[in-house]
Write a structure and sequence with these properties.
Helix content: under 10%
Number of domains: 2
Strand content: 35-45%
Number of helices: 5
Oligomer: single chain
């Protein structure tokens, strides 16, 4: 087994795929600021940009760009109240003169379902909000990849001990330096979750916090690595160790992504809200190519 280059611990930085977690990120974007953390920005209202461009996919409502305003840390976070609803949002592919305008499909969410994202292309974002300086960001999309063999997905199941040998993921990617992220997220209710490797007589977590809460370890683990670190078999790369990311039996969402530089910086730098490639605001404007499965792991 080849060890990952690094591992994203219990934070939203390792969970880029689910819009359900975006309000939590927005509410906490400046939670460490102004309370003794002198290395970050001061506490103040900020515009937050959060969006991924997915190679081969449109900027649909599901993949919409999110615009919001930070709220006081101690106040309850209301997504509707925080949403930026009067913005002009455009995305222009480098080399093209005309930009595509994203329309608001839900409060604070902007999309253009006719715009399909290409691999190895640079896209420039511009956000104009009355009374604010323009917000800009750019991303160069990563190399795409081909999955030639994946996990055994629902409604079938996989014995955990057989994953590495019998259900590895095989992929092709033409760039050996491309950075990938593998994301394993357990879907079991914490009361029903059972450890694959129990701690003594403890068969499952004692509470939601021990389970990992909404997005922490061991419920959710997401390592990132360069594809050249995987085992090679002919012209394919073999990823068999994703089962090692699972602490519990049960259902999982498994994602494999190639990621751009903005996402990579957001994952490993301190103060990720300042490292996501956005100028004039905080947050992330990144890109990825992805494959996903829902699986069930049994004894």
């Amino acid at each position: 087994m080849t060890a990952p280059l690094n591992r994203v611990t219990a934070s939203l930085r390792g969970r880029p795929l689910s819009a359900a977690f975006l309000p939590l990120f927005l509410a906490g974007a400046l939670a460490g600021c102004g309370d003794g953390d002198t290395t970050g920005p001061g506490t103040r209202e900020e515009i937050v940009v959060f969006g991924y461009l997915y190679v081969g996919e449109a900027i649909s409502e599901e993949n919409a760009l999110l615009l919001s305003r930070t709220r006081p840390v101690l106040d309850p976070f209301d997504p509707e109240e925080a949403a930026v609803t009067e913005a002009v949002v455009t995305i222009r592919k480098e080399g093209e003169e005309e930009a595509d305008t994203l329309e608001m499909v839900r409060p604070g969410r902007y999309a253009e379902p006719e715009l399909v994202i290409e691999a190895l292309a640079t896209y420039h974002l511009r956000v104009e909000i009355e009374g604010e300086d323009p917000i800009t960001a750019s991303t160069t999309t990563p190399w795409s990849f081909e999955i030639t063999r994946g996990p055994r997905a629902l409604p079938d199941s996989m014995p955990h001990a057989a994953i590495a040998d019998s259900f590895p993921i095989y992929l092709r990617c033409d760039y050996e330096e491309q950075i990938f992220l593998v994301d394993a997220y357990c879907l079991e209710d914490w009361e029903d979750a059972r450890y694959i490797d129990p701690f003594g007589a403890e068969e499952g977590p004692e509470d939601y916090q021990e389970y990992g809460g909404d997005n922490g370890e061991p419920r959710h683990i997401a390592p990132y690595f360069r594809v050249k670190g995987l085992e090679e078999e002919g012209d394919e790369y073999r990823l068999g160790w994703y089962g090692d990311l699972m602490a519990f039996y049960g259902e999982y969402d498994i994602h494999v992504l190639s990621i751009d530089e903005n996402v990579y910086n957001w994952l490993y730098r301190d103060h990720p809200e300042l490292s996501g490639g956005v100028s004039g605001a905080i947050g992330l404007f990144g890109s990825a190519c992805r494959a996903a499965w829902r699986v069930k792991v049994i004894e």
